[in-house]
Amino acid sequence: MVEDRFHIEMEDISAFQIERSADDSFWEEIPYNELMEKVLADIPEEKLKRFLGVVRNGGMFKFGDYFYRIKAD
After folding, report:
1. How far, in Å, CA of 48 to CA of 36, rounded?
2. 66 touches 20 (CB < 8 A)
3. CA-to-CA distance for 59 and 52, rounded, in angstroms?
4. Fewer CB atoms inside 10 Å of the end CB: C or N, the chain?
């Protein structure tokens, strides 16, 4: 669970398998803790909220060199 600076819970994606892709053709899994601790650790809160909201609602989010999404079955 991630909270903003006002201790309000943001979208929770921890229950889902997350994937990333550099070109939207080959997807690789990325563990949630690695995503949060290494990839998203130092981004501004508003961008983190956008990332979590887009991914949680089934979209892809481009961040850095990768697209991120919830794993498609």
Report:
1. 10
2. yes
3. 10
4. C
CA–centroid distance for 63 within its chain:
9
Q: Which of the 8 DSSP states describes residue 3? A: B
Span 12-67, pLDDT tens digits: 898 899 999 999 899 999 999 999 999 999 999 999 999 999 999 999 999 999 99
The rounded distance, in Å, linking the Cα atoms of 68 and 61 is: 5
- Distance in angstroms (rounded) separating the CA atoms of residues 65 and 1: 25
Cα 44 off chain centre by: 13
Residue type, 4: D
Please state, in angstroms and rounded to a whole number, the distance separating the CA atoms of residues 71 and 45.
Answer: 24
Tallying the residues shown for the chain, one arrives at 73
Q: Yes or no: say if 27 and 21 are a contact pair by the CB < 8 Å rule.
A: yes
